Amino acid sequence: MTTTEAPAAASPAGTHPSPPADPDSPAPTWTAHPTTTEGWLERAQEVSDLLAADAVARDRANRSPFREVELLKSAGLLTLLGPREFGGGGQTWETAYTAVRIVARGDGSIGQLLAYHFLWFWTAELVGTDEQRAAFARSATEGNWLIGGAVNPRDDDLTVTDEGEELVFTGRKSFSTGGVVSDVTILEGVLEGTGDHVFTAVPTRQEGIDFAGDWDNLGQRLTESGSVRITDVRVPWADALGYVDKQFHGLVYATLNVPAIQLVFTNFYLGIAQGALERAAAYTREKTRAWPFGGDDKASADEEWYILEGYGQLASKLWADEALIDRTGATISEVLHAPREELTEQRRGEIAVQVAASKLRIAEDGLEVTSKIFELTGARASSNSVGLDIYWRNLRTHSLHDPLPYKKREVGEYALAGRIPEPTWYT
């Protein structure tokens, strides 16, 4: 699969697109991709603005986000981490994390799709051989793939059988973000008769991959994160990432997959919370009425002391969270782009603690923001047509991914005793 081509996106045309009125019409396109970090973040903002324009309607319709994926493709965002020599953006993880955050402000679901895609794009970098890394980076970038993953570590019912020159994947995963809208799926299973985990990339559209279409959750409704049945999906041993002569050759660097994806979560949580505060503030300025029965009557809502206090509290928390998350993103980005053999267990553990602290802060503060905004916008803002509920539903749903108290414990053990967490599927 490292050199197999998937369907490429349509050739870009047009510039600075605006959303078409017909949701079934083609996604907007651009004439060229950015060449600078600032340009890529501007592109992410353009995509975010387009998504925000009809986010409420699309959430209510709950349709598979094929058109939204085409938007990400035509914007070039899927290739942001790809090498420049293959047509990619050549950007760092620090930029990728920020792009995820920006897109999530407009639509948390699509921010998650992009976020997971970046992690799966980096899978070969994390665990693959040098040859696999180069081949996958080229194929994924030139193919403009959206990459999904059937890698839920709590499911142990996807087995991998050694059949000589091939591996055969069979079983089920209860979650598979990206689902039917992806071009390529990262599979993970345990090699039969061993405790060894095997990662590989396969074309999504094949007979042996059957998505149940059962993603029907409170939030993040457009992420295609339902279950998937895997039946006799065959891959050559050469596509088993990190394996040479059927033996895995991994480094401490390979265990960065979990801190990297946990910080992915952290950034789209921040984006969702920022989007909620921005949307609520706009509503307050435009529609919220001052309270006329308090004995301290104001002419407009933006003069009400409790509203000013409320926005001040929420904004200051998000600003503090953003500073912490940016610092963590810069730290892990430097390591992700450094020579793989240089990473030590101690350094990896310290980064994991920073990620845990970042995630627990934005999860708690973000849930406060997405709930408190109703008190600052007023009763009429609870109308379904306004759509402020989307932000809380999205953040509430994904922040249950793994228990937050364990993140607090990891930070506490480090702060109190200097102990770093042992790498696990969630640490």
TrEMBL record:
<dbReference type="InterPro" id="IPR009100">
    <property type="entry name" value="AcylCoA_DH/oxidase_NM_dom_sf"/>
</dbReference>
<dbReference type="InterPro" id="IPR013107">
    <property type="entry name" value="Acyl-CoA_DH_C"/>
</dbReference>
<dbReference type="InterPro" id="IPR046373">
    <property type="entry name" value="Acyl-CoA_Oxase/DH_mid-dom_sf"/>
</dbReference>
<protein>
    <submittedName>
        <fullName>Acyl-CoA dehydrogenase family protein</fullName>
    </submittedName>
</protein>
<dbReference type="Pfam" id="PF02771">
    <property type="entry name" value="Acyl-CoA_dh_N"/>
</dbReference>
<feature type="domain" description="Acyl-CoA dehydrogenase/oxidase N-terminal">
    <location>
        <begin position="51"/>
        <end position="143"/>
    </location>
</feature>
<keyword id="KW-0560">Oxidoreductase</keyword>
<feature type="compositionally biased region" description="Low complexity">
    <location>
        <begin position="27"/>
        <end position="37"/>
    </location>
</feature>
<dbReference type="Pfam" id="PF08028">
    <property type="entry name" value="Acyl-CoA_dh_2"/>
</dbReference>
<feature type="compositionally biased region" description="Pro residues">
    <location>
        <begin position="17"/>
        <end position="26"/>
    </location>
</feature>
<feature type="region of interest" description="Disordered">
    <location>
        <begin position="1"/>
        <end position="37"/>
    </location>
</feature>
<dbReference type="InterPro" id="IPR036250">
    <property type="entry name" value="AcylCo_DH-like_C"/>
</dbReference>
<feature type="domain" description="Acyl-CoA dehydrogenase C-terminal">
    <location>
        <begin position="264"/>
        <end position="401"/>
    </location>
</feature>
<dbReference type="InterPro" id="IPR037069">
    <property type="entry name" value="AcylCoA_DH/ox_N_sf"/>
</dbReference>
<dbReference type="InterPro" id="IPR013786">
    <property type="entry name" value="AcylCoA_DH/ox_N"/>
</dbReference>
<feature type="compositionally biased region" description="Low complexity">
    <location>
        <begin position="1"/>
        <end position="16"/>
    </location>
</feature>
